[in-house]
Amino acid sequence: GENVEQHPSTLSVQEGDSAVIKCTYSDSASNYFPWYKQELGKRPQLIIDIRSNVGEKKDQRIAVTLNKTAKHFSLHITETQPEDSAVYFCAAIVIKTIFGAGTRLFVKA
Amino acid sequence: DTEVTQTPKHLVMGMTNKKSLKCEQHMGHRAMYWYKQKAKKPPELMFVYSYEKLSINESVPSRFSPECPNSSLLNLHLHALQPEDSALYLCASSHDGQRYTGELFFGEGSRLTVL
User: Fold this and answer.
1) Higher model confidence: residue B94 or residue A95?
2) What is the pLDDT of residue A1?
3) Chain B contact for A54, CB < 8 A?
4) Mean pLDDT across the stretch A12-25?
5) Closest CA of chain B from A79, distance in Å
6) Does A102 touch chain B (CB under 8 A)?
7) Which DSSP symbol is given to B102?
């Protein structure tokens, strides 16, 4: 079955800096790659997603890139703000959603 | 209405109790899910219902019994649970009931403690 690895497990950045989270997946049939943000005590919420026929997608300060050949995808957050502090999960879907282990992002003011 | 509503928010039960978790969505989504989330871990898939029929069971112990009474409701019946079953139980829904791609809309979760 699908296996998703996510790095780093913890990331601490200064406000205004960029943050990059990387994921790899194992099943080449995976065709949809969402990113979820989960604030403490809250539900996971989709922040951006990308499909396998697209290499890059951007939404304001957030961008995701996908390299199908290497089977990896990344989340880029620019101009980080304290409210970006949360746990971020990548996921890959082929039939079912498989989540990465999560990255705890701390943005220091 | 873009909400998935879960009740109760908190539940404490003994190992001999029978209880149920409830989930409701009115977005017309055709797939509904139960996930289990332990502290500092990702959501772990338990069950998927597609068009009100159980389509995926991730080898979940029989002490967890899902039920989908109609297209808007999803229940999780709990019986003879173990302390290690204590976790946040998240319900989710998605529009696509066949390929399961697309955004998962999560409820706020039911935090279960088994004594």
Assistant:
1) B94
2) 80
3) no
4) 98
5) 25
6) yes
7) S
- Summarize pLDDT for A39-76 with one digit per residue, the tens: 999 999 999 999 988 899 999 999 999 999 999 999 99
**Residue from B115, B114, B68 nearest B91 by CA:** B68
**Which residues from B are below 8 Å from A46, CB to CB?**
103-104
One-letter amino acid of B109: G
Residue A95 clears pLDDT 90, i.e. is over it: no
Residues of chain B with pLDDT under 50: none
Distance CA B9, CA A100 (A): 25
Interface probe with B: pick from A43, A52, A89, most Cβ of B within 10 Å: A43
- In contact, B4 and B107? CB cutoff 8 Å: yes
Average pLDDT over chain A reads 95
Residue type, A29: A
Structure tokens at B108: 């706020």
pLDDT for the residue numbered B1: 63
The 3-state DSSP class for residue B106 equals strand
Cα–Cα distance, B103 to A47 (Å, whole number):
10
Contact between B72 and B104 under an 8 Å Cβ cutoff? The reply is: no
For residue B18, what is the enclosing H or E element? Answer: strand B18-25
Please tell me the distance from the alpha carbon of residue B29 to that of residue B105, in angstroms, as a whole number: 10
**Chain pair A-B, CB pairs under 8 angstroms:** 45
Residues of A in contact with B106 (CB under 8 A): 43-45
**B81: which 2 tokens?**
């649970």
Token look-up 């808007």 returns B72
